Amino acid sequence: MLRRLWRRARGNNAASEREDRDRDEESALPLTEQVVRAIPEEISVDGSSAQTGPHKRQAVRKSKSLDSFSVKAVTAIFLECGIVVNDLPDRQIALTHPLHWAVRKWKNPLLQSLLECLGQWRGNVESVDEKGMRPLHAAAEINNLDAFKVLQTHGADVHAFRSDRNAGDQPVHSAAFECSMAVLKYLIPESNISEDQEFVAARNLQGETPLHCAAYSKKKPTLQITCVQYLLEHGAMVNTKDKSKGDTPLHIACRKNLIDLVKVMADIRPEEFCQAMQMTNTYGKTPRDLAWKGTISMVTLEDQQKLMQLLLDRGLPCDIEGADGGSALRLAAENGDEELVERLLAGGALIYPDEVGCTAFLNATAGNYVSIMRSIYGKFGRTLTMDAKDKVGNTALHYAAANDAAEAIAFLLSLGAKVLEDSSGRTPMDLAIFHRSQRSAQAFVDDSEWRKHVMRPSRDYDSILLGLIQFLPDVVSSCLDKCMNVEKNLETPDKSYTEYDLTIFYPPEYSDTKQAAVYMAPMRALEIMASCGQDKLLAHPVCISLLERKWLRYGFFCSVVIMAANLAVVGLLTYILMSSVETDLRPYLLQKSHKNIATHNPSALNNTPIEELYRRGHNHGVAGFDDDISVLFLALSLVLILFMEGTNLFSKGLRYFKDWINYVGFLLFISCAGFLISFQLQGQGRDDRAWTYQFGAVAVFLAWFNLMRCCRPFGTFGIYSIMFFRIMKTLMEVLLFFALLIVAFAAAFCVLFQSQIFPDRYEFHQYQSSLEPNTLRTGHDTLFFSGFRIGAMTTGELDFLSTFLYPLMDGMLEYPTLAAIFYAIFLMLMPILLNNLLIGLAVGDMDAIRNNAAALRREIQVYLHYALERLFPAKLLKRFQDETISYREYAEEEKSLLHRIATWLQSGSPKQSDKAGTTNTTDEVDAEEPIIISKRNRQMRLKSLEPSLTKLERELEPDELVYHKLQQLDNAVQEQAKLLTQILDELKRRPPA
């Protein structure tokens, strides 16, 4: 066949005749040389005729393993077996390592031919591929038993090592790793146990046995278990260590959490299994350590717990401590396995801390496993310390608070656990606030000693209460509920009262020196509520009652004093300025006018009106203003106002500058000071009227304007002040945008309406008796004046006839068409659109202010009281503290006139109270209700039952009688409700009249 192939490839008769002549000589040569001689140089791998020149033999390259002689021989053998090398996707591998390729492709006849034809080249049997594997390793890896036998027959070494950088496995290791059972059973036969040890105990270069490799296998669990079981039954040792890590096969199985594998090892080799459980590897880890610590993230929790149960079933002691200080009890508690914990405790397990000092009890606490905590405490109750700390100072309460374990916190507090600080000075409540653990914080509040927990100093927030206000307001609401106790006396309603205990508002501050001073400013807590926007907390009845009480004690009087001081400034400033205008400014202006006439038009001095002007300017008969006492009082009032502004700045800090209204006070002081200084200099002979009265005009405006700001603490009319400033702020924001339109129209009108013209019309000049040049002025001479004119027109002062329509009709506009278009656009955008937009925004702002009026009033009062308390001396503040820390409010207590006035000024009505968080609304009747019995009538009928309820409450008797009466009343109400429903249904069924 090879000869025919050669002749077909050459296609040359001369070559055929020459080979016929040499037939006898070639028959005496070995088969390999016959094959090589039969392949010409021009033959390609696929057997076709190759091209000559630089492109010949393009498909075949010499490999590192085979020389040209072997490549030719291998190619010929492939062709003999019907395989065209050039058609193979992995032809390079087939030529480089033909034996490996034949083994992996299960081409056993090809393998046999290669070994027979290349019998004199025995290096191929032990050749290695790129992975360092010999053909025998490849056969063992893929479980190709026939190829394995063929290779072994041709001299392959069954104990040869892989020449790679890994473990240096023998073929038996490769078979064990891939669970190649056919090869394993061939190497380790069933019958001959004495010869088994040659392969069962074989070690690779890392000192691993086939059992190690089987444990490392990634095959299916069933196949892996079959392989391990076969090795164990034929003498494989469970307690054999490797050289690299010192691991036994049991270490590997426990690390990978192979439960069934561990069970097989324990069942077949029980004695060696127990020995291996106590053996440590190079890192000091036992199989138990690897099973109970390092695989939580790799396997399911259920599998890990099953493995622990299995190890315990095989005799592992429960109280053994791991190399890292861990224990089975700690890990079982961490995973929440209550059944396993009970078994470990019953078996004598002890509490060992790990490397960070964490015990099983702390792990159970962090996981909120209260039942496990109870079991551990029941076992070690006398020796277990509730306040034990780990190496960073965390107690069980710290673990529970950081992990939102509310039930664990309640259990610990019931056992008397103390609230301690960790090494950084943080308490469990600090951690609860930091982690936003509302349930944890609520568990502390639900404790009987909740005030101590809430009032503790805090390193991060100065006080726990302040931190709760900022980040956990719902918990603070629960605290405030506990600060209020309502006692109702139905027999004597006038003795019903509400008791308030505001101790939590006076917590000690945090101090680095551990000397905590009593916190004397409860308004700081309310101030943080206001600054953080916690309106619900400020609306709580406790906070409202505290604000009302402080308002009645000193807030009302201080607000009245502040208002009186501002009124004094306004009155004195107005009196001084108006008197100066009458006695000084007016004569000065008349004299200046007379002087200018005399300079520029002397002939007009003889006119009677000009003489009257001179008389009014020089002989007015009004005495000059010289009231030094008023000026002194004004200066003192200004100092008081400046002091109050400084106090407000000190209390609010940087927030003071965020509210633009606060700048009014400083501008008022500056303008008043400028007016007084200029006024005094003018009295000393200096003519500073230009500055005096300009400062005075600004000062008197700001003084009256500032009164609106001072009205805000008073709820009666302060709401209107808030509305005004809110709408004013909205107006300024809108005008910042519409200023673009104002400039646009000002520039356009400055061009189109620069000046009117006298038209080129005969009729116009016939009917105009006199032409005045002043009639041509339009008010748009410059861009500056045009902007003022546009602003006035925007507010409605259009002067439409004289400024636009008449000039347009008379032809006095140079560009009438474009001027008419721009004027129409202006009318649509500015007076109509802008005004309607401002009205809509103002209405929306007023609705929002009405809805939030109570919240805004409370916020203003909080800042007022906070600023005032920072000015009070310690004794006075202590006195106010004693009056507000605990008190009672009686429902039927008669209020004094001053009390009613103060309440009216605070909230707008002496009867209005927002403690319940509701507002009084007027009942409205549905306009669309076509039924005779309206909503108002139904409410009146239900309201008629109130006297019966009141009478019943006053005549309360023993519980059973009360219950029966209430039941009768409830039945009566239900009957009336049914009757009303029937009437309504009947009316609906009637046809309309």
From TrEMBL:
<feature type="repeat" description="ANK">
    <location>
        <begin position="206"/>
        <end position="243"/>
    </location>
</feature>
<feature type="transmembrane region" description="Helical">
    <location>
        <begin position="731"/>
        <end position="754"/>
    </location>
</feature>
<keyword id="KW-0675">Receptor</keyword>
<dbReference type="InterPro" id="IPR002110">
    <property type="entry name" value="Ankyrin_rpt"/>
</dbReference>
<feature type="transmembrane region" description="Helical">
    <location>
        <begin position="818"/>
        <end position="843"/>
    </location>
</feature>
<keyword id="KW-0677">Repeat</keyword>
<protein>
    <submittedName>
        <fullName>Transient receptor potential cation channel subfamily A member 1</fullName>
    </submittedName>
</protein>
<feature type="region of interest" description="Disordered">
    <location>
        <begin position="1"/>
        <end position="30"/>
    </location>
</feature>
<dbReference type="GO" id="GO:1902495">
    <property type="term" value="C:transmembrane transporter complex"/>
</dbReference>
<keyword id="KW-1133">Transmembrane helix</keyword>
<dbReference type="InterPro" id="IPR052076">
    <property type="entry name" value="TRP_cation_channel"/>
</dbReference>
<keyword id="KW-0813">Transport</keyword>
<dbReference type="InterPro" id="IPR036770">
    <property type="entry name" value="Ankyrin_rpt-contain_sf"/>
</dbReference>
<keyword id="KW-0472">Membrane</keyword>
<feature type="transmembrane region" description="Helical">
    <location>
        <begin position="660"/>
        <end position="679"/>
    </location>
</feature>
<feature type="repeat" description="ANK">
    <location>
        <begin position="131"/>
        <end position="163"/>
    </location>
</feature>
<keyword id="KW-0040">ANK repeat</keyword>
<keyword id="KW-0812">Transmembrane</keyword>
<dbReference type="GO" id="GO:0005216">
    <property type="term" value="F:monoatomic ion channel activity"/>
</dbReference>
<dbReference type="Pfam" id="PF12796">
    <property type="entry name" value="Ank_2"/>
</dbReference>
<dbReference type="InterPro" id="IPR005821">
    <property type="entry name" value="Ion_trans_dom"/>
</dbReference>
<keyword id="KW-0716">Sensory transduction</keyword>
<keyword id="KW-0407">Ion channel</keyword>
<keyword id="KW-0325">Glycoprotein</keyword>
<keyword id="KW-0406">Ion transport</keyword>
<feature type="repeat" description="ANK">
    <location>
        <begin position="324"/>
        <end position="349"/>
    </location>
</feature>
<feature type="compositionally biased region" description="Basic and acidic residues">
    <location>
        <begin position="16"/>
        <end position="26"/>
    </location>
</feature>
<feature type="repeat" description="ANK">
    <location>
        <begin position="392"/>
        <end position="424"/>
    </location>
</feature>
<feature type="transmembrane region" description="Helical">
    <location>
        <begin position="691"/>
        <end position="710"/>
    </location>
</feature>
<feature type="compositionally biased region" description="Basic residues">
    <location>
        <begin position="1"/>
        <end position="10"/>
    </location>
</feature>
<feature type="domain" description="Ion transport">
    <location>
        <begin position="632"/>
        <end position="851"/>
    </location>
</feature>
<feature type="transmembrane region" description="Helical">
    <location>
        <begin position="629"/>
        <end position="648"/>
    </location>
</feature>
<feature type="repeat" description="ANK">
    <location>
        <begin position="245"/>
        <end position="265"/>
    </location>
</feature>
<feature type="transmembrane region" description="Helical">
    <location>
        <begin position="554"/>
        <end position="578"/>
    </location>
</feature>
<feature type="region of interest" description="Disordered">
    <location>
        <begin position="42"/>
        <end position="62"/>
    </location>
</feature>
<dbReference type="Pfam" id="PF00520">
    <property type="entry name" value="Ion_trans"/>
</dbReference>
